[in-house]
Amino acid sequence: MPYRCVWCHSGQASRTFVARERLFGMEGEFEYAECAACGSLQILHPPSDLSRYYPREYDAYNALPDTYYRGWLGVIRSWRDYTVATGRGWLGRLVLLVHPQQDPRVRSLRLLNLAPDTRVLDVGCGSGLLLLIMHRIGFQHAEGIDPYFSSDRPVGGRVPVYRRTLQQHVESQPPPYDVLMYHHVLEHIADPERELRLAQQLLKTGGRVLVRLPLAGSYHWRQYGTDWFQLDAPRHLSIPSVGGMRSLAERSGYTVEYIGFDALPLHLHASELYRRGIPGRQHRPDMHSRAQWREFARLTERLNRTGEADSGVFLLRKGE
Ligand SMILES: [Zn+2]
Known about the structure:
Blueprint: E1 13-19, E2 30-35, E3 41-43, H1 65-68, H2 71-86, H3 90-98, H4 104-108, E4 120-123, H5 129-136, E5 142-145, E6 161-162, H6 166-171, E7 177-183, H7 192-200, E8 203-214, H8 219-224, E9 238-239, H9 242-251, E10 254-261, H10 265-275, H11 290-306, E11 311-318
Helix pairs in contact: 2-3, 10-11
Zinc ion (ZN) binds next to loops.
């Protein structure tokens, strides 16, 4: 099949390269192309059985929603999460003075200005932890779908999560949503354009889509190439540049309302360790000194500010 960039539809690749699975050190070589027009990356021959690259240890399904808000630590977390998600609340501000780290998933909710009755669908919700956080801090109309979700049991006993794809969810004819969210999900989907067009059917008029995903064309990609942590072959089937994402969003009937960047220092830490040939499952924070972590944090903060970082946040609005 001839090459066509899934993000901008250009038929020209500037080059191809071979990447390996680095998180678990699984065997195999995977050929990717870089788009000559927009700089997005995509795998040329996806493995026929992708599920074997999502073993039980895969991170998205390992977060422990049931214990996250247990005990006093849970109470402190709920103060902090409310402030990170809304910008309000003095108890959470106090917690952030002591522990300033903010989960970028929770932080991105601030873009949505959620009301208590906003209907939200988290597509590819993994363990459902973000949904549990939303319910705990007062956004009770959030639910999730994930084709690999472990059961149909509500997360934390109260958050509905359905084990299904977006297509199956559309067929179940739920009431329309105000917001659909894709947190590091679109890069795992073979046809992101079909996905975002399908998403239109679930949205109210003027509804919004929040997309967070890795970015090609970033400092991290240029600096580390196939050692880049977020290349994550072969799970990441395609990774857009900022221009590639914009092109796909507009072609699929959305207006791009906001573009931001939320990379973590971890991405530099892990890319450095991949460069040394260490598989991701062996990575430990103490493999870099405190001074090196401070440097990763400084550089990451600068790259997020200048728009060269390897993680993007896009807010799209459905056209009239
Ligand atoms: Zn392209």
